[in-house]
Amino acid sequence: MNRPTRKRRSPEESRANILAAAERLLISNGPQSLRLADVAKEASVVHATILHHFGSIHGVHTALMERMIEDLVERILALQMPEGAEIPRGFAFNLLIEAFNDKGAARLAAWLELTDESRRLTSVREAVNTVIREKIRPEGVPLDRLEDIILLSITMALGIGLFGPSLEAMLDRPDGRTREMALELFHSGLETLSNPNGKS
User: Fold this and answer.
1) Gap between the Cα atoms of 98 and 112, Å rounded
2) CA 157, 158, 163, 167: dihedral to nearest 10 degrees?
3) Fold of 7-55
């Protein structure tokens, strides 16, 4: 039986290697793959190394959640809006889809929800709010309607990231069709959300 190849790393490098391995498993196979043996094999370390750095596989889970949330927050806060020209309708929603699709953010959100850890997403919510208010700054939209737009954007983006590709394949639809339809629905409903009383 071949044993995992050991590499001499600093404690920080060792932790980063283990978390990177766990993240790859989460994205490719889902949270059910985050078992001690699976993570050790993916990271090419022995079980004892993981236990030394994290105490238990649950410690790996907690650290991975925190790391992926930090990465997601950084990506959201880094979103850039075009300057000097009128912002196309739905442009911000496109950016949110990219942020929540990248590196399995949708899987992360589902994992947190299934394990009753969704409270950890508070920092993500704050990051989205910051981007909406400071970078998008839609004029003439009341705060409560703006919150509705944020809610719709994130819900649709997570659904696309989590189920879009598999449902497209199951229903024999072109790749990316889920995203296209979501954008169409978002565009058609945005005017109503922004102007719920129907005033022009």
Assistant:
1) 20
2) -20
3) Arc Repressor Mutant, subunit A (1.10.10)
